[in-house]
Amino acid sequence: MTYVKYKGTSIPEAPILEGRFGRAWRVNLPPPGQRGKKDLDATVDAFLLNAYQAHPLWDYWLVSMVALRPIEGVKKAFIRKEGATHELMIASLNPEEALPSLTWNEHWNAAWMTPLDVTEQFHVENDAQAAEILEMAIRAMCEGRISPDQDYRPMWKLFIQACEKGLRPADWTTGSGKSGVM
Question: How do the residues of the chain divide into helix, strand and coil, expressed in percent and rounded to 5?
């Protein structure tokens, strides 16, 4: 019997970023209020990441940035770090399930495994800054400078701490320390 990962699904679109160790696709998010469930309005941005050398048994992750602000009608976010405004979340996708679509709609589903690989909360002034940090994280993973796997949680903590202080870890991105080209 041949084992086919992700039920033989693939992503037909070209990735928006390709590096030596990975590829990434942005998930097309409808505007807040049009995502099917109110709690999904907290998602600032999301990517599917294919990091083929990061783990021997799976190679796709959902990487997202979530705002922790209150949303009317939604249970209050669990804030573990005082003053946190956003959370970076990295979740391994179950290789026994199909890959999610890049188009988010009310039926969109990503079969991630638990526990999540990374959940780092931090403080920034706005969603744009949080999205920039997410883009830097995606670039760093595609370049193989940091792994999405849970074994790298201590490195993710350092990455987020540096970003929270306004630093842009150049050696974890393209070498320039700049983002926003995606």
Answer: 25, 20, 55
The single-letter code of the amino acid at 100 is P
Q: Is residue 65 a contact partner of residue 130, using CB atoms and an 8 Å limit?
A: yes
Strand partners, 50: 23, 60
The amino acid sitting at 37 is K
pLDDT tens per residue, range 33-75: 888 888 889 999 999 999 989 999 999 999 999 999 999 999 9
Strand partners, 48: 25, 62
Tally: H helices and E strands in the chain: 2, 6
Q: What is the pTM of this model?
A: 0.90
- Domain positions in the chain: 5-172
- How far is 153 from 43, CA to CA, in rounded Å? 21
Give the CA angle between residues 27, 28, 30 to the nearest 5°: 130
Average pLDDT, the chain: 89
Phi, psi of 172 (to 5 degrees): -100, -5
- Sign, CA torsion 69/168/157/172: positive
Q: How far apart are CA 23 and CA 41, in angstroms?
A: 26
Q: Which of 118, 104, 106 is nearest to 152 (CA)?
A: 118
d(CA 75, CA 35): 17
> Rounded distance, CA 71 to CA 99, Å?
29
